[in-house]
Design a protein that fits this description.
By secondary structure, this protein is an alpha/beta fold. The protein has helices at 60-64, 89-92, 108-116, 119-125, 140-152, 167-173, 189-196, 201-212, 231-242, 260-266, 280-291, and strands at residues 3-13, 21-26, 47-50, 70-73, 76-79, 99-102, 104-107, 128-132, 156-161, 179-183, 217-223, 249-254. The chain has two domains: 3-44 and 103-291, Alpha-Beta Barrel (TIM Barrel), CATH 3.20.20.70; 47-102, Alpha-Beta Plaits, CATH 3.30.70. The strands form three sheets. Strands 7-1-2-8-9-10-11-12 form an eight-stranded mixed β-sheet. The radius of gyration is 21 Å and the shape is globular. It starts with a strand and ends in an 8-residue tail after the last helix.
């Protein structure tokens, strides 16, 4: 049976499409956005998260690690991530949950058993299942099989995507998608590459094609202070979106910094240490700019 790699299933979600939903978070993403809320999703292989504030310094992981990658030096527990082969032995003996690994393999059948239990909540609220990530289009076989399985159960489906994928992938899955949640991060090609690691031409072109084919699309713009919240970019975004023939609207998502702790747990550098969540006034100004272009902005 088809299987894939995910790192979480969030039930009773109300922020990833209409109604009450279950959101499935896929592992693996071609982007590396500076503000990524789920950095553990960027790689498809399991990633070690070590939360120092939970550590009891008991030394169980030091003794258990078959690679000798963990050492206890005074009041600090050090991990040589180059030696670590993600065997997850250390996490299995960690009493406090300080050491965890993201990402695990699951079959379509196993995942659908979880998702089908929530059907009464979907039906009552007009909800369904959202496939997010990471980037779900990086696992097209798994995603396609899940969409087909949801269709068989009459479950509403949404795909949350960066849009960075070959059009043939969209062609394969689009018939099974009731709603696309489509990220628009920056209109300038060079700046987009700088802050996400990839250019934006394919993203914009795929969005045009989906809209031209009549799909239901909600564009989501993460408003990141000092990155894409300037008037020039917002007006360019509004002009581009206004040219699309089919668009459900735009949702502005204010930046938040809660992912900084995840970057620390992964041993990665966080690129926006000084950024702060935008004030309500900043979100309102951005919404007003988009509205002047004729764009419907969700409250």
């Amino acid at each position: 049976m088809t299987s894939g790699v995910i790192f979480d299933v969030k039930k009773y979600s109300i922020n990833d499409g209409p109604g009450i939903r279950a959101t499935v978070f896929f592992s693996g993403c071609p982007l590396s956005c500076w503000w990524c809320h789920n950095p553990e999703s960027q790689r498809q292989t399991p990633q070690l998260l070590y939360r120092e504030n939970r550590c009891l310094l008991c030394g169980a992981c030091v003794e258990a690690c078959p690679q000798g990658a963990i050492t206890l030096e005074g009041v600090s527990l050090l991990t040589n991530r180059e030696k670590c082969d993600s065997c997850q032995t250390c996490a299995s003996v960690c009493y406090s949950g300080a050491r965890q690994f993201s990402g695990y393999e699951i079959t379509v059948g196993e995942l659908m058993e979880q998702l089908k239990r929530e059907i009464p909540f979907y039906d009552e609220s007009g909800g369904g299942v959202t496939f997010s990530g990471g980037e779900p289009l990086m696992q097209p076989d798994f995603l396609s099989a899940l969409l087909q399985a949801c269709r068989a159960e009459e479950i509403h489906t949404a795909v949350d995507t960066s849009g960075f994928a070959a059009w043939k992938v969209f062609e394969r899955i689009r018939a099974g998608v009731d709603l696309f949640l489509y990220d628009l991060k920056h209109m300038d090609r060079a700046r987009h590459r700088e802050v996400t690691g990839v250019p934006n031409e394919i993203i914009l072109e795929n969005l045009k094609k989906l809209s031209a084919r009549g799909h239901h699309i909600l564009v989501r713009i993460p408003l990141i202070p000092g990155v894409n919240d300037d008037e020039e970019n917002l007006r360019a975004s509004g002009a581009f979106l206004a040219s699309l023939p089919n668009l459900e609207g735009v949702e502005l998502m204010g930046y938040h910094d809660i992912a900084q702790a995840k970057y620390q747990a992964l041993g990665w550098e966080y690129k926006l240490p000084e950024a702060r969540p935008p004030a309500k006034e900043a979100l309102s100004r951005a919404a007003d700019l988009l509205k002047t272009c004729g764009i419907s902005v969700l409250d």
